[in-house]
Amino acid sequence: MAIIRQATERDVEAVCALINSSLDQYFSPLVVGFFFAQWPTGQIVAEDVFGNLLGAICGSKLDSGRASISLFAVDEAFRGKGIGTSLLDSFRRRCMMEGVGVMQLEVRPMNLRARSFYEAHGFTVIEHLENFYADGGDAYRMSAFVSSCRTG
Ligand SMILES: CC(C)(COP(=O)(O)OP(=O)(O)OC[C@H]1O[C@@H](n2cnc3c(N)ncnc32)[C@H](O)[C@@H]1OP(=O)(O)O)[C@@H](O)C(=O)NCCC(=O)NCCS
After folding, report:
1. How far is CA 134 from CA 27, 42, 56, 108, 109, in A?
2. Which of 50, 115, 125, 145 is deepest in the core (most CB within 10 A)?
């Protein structure tokens, strides 16, 4: 069972390690620390009973009542067990509490597992962003209304 909680500054190093082992782009502790500073309540982690990090969402607040899921990963050994869904649910509830109406994110078109995860939770592609990533790769921007996102 995973414990879901708001992250603190003490989690930055472990979140950074998890994100860099899960995503194909490097994020420095400074970047992760920026998310934590920008929106402390928008950083969610999942851990086991021993405090080992299992997953994390780093969110950022955008304008016009929107929030971005900027970084999102679950430890490879623990995927498919509902931890990503629990993290997304906690993030969605945080958005609701803070008056955020729309969640959005960017995902690589070839990341079919993540895309199907997001689609299963009510996200749809709203934009194709060419040359979005540092390596020149494209992205799909996906979004979902906080009120209609399926996390249960
Ligand atoms: C995308 C990601 C965060 C999803 O996390 P996850 O913990 O695997 O997500 P869940 O377990 O909640 O859901 C994944 C699947 O497992 C299934 N599942 C949920 N609970 C389950 C359970 N208790 N037992 C078995 N399967 C379960 C879900 O139905 C879901 O299936 P679907 O994808 O066909 O809808 C994870 O795959 C990941 O870290 N990917 C690599 C990093 C990445 O690509 N991040 C996104 C960048 S935009």
Report:
1. 11, 24, 22, 12, 15
2. 115
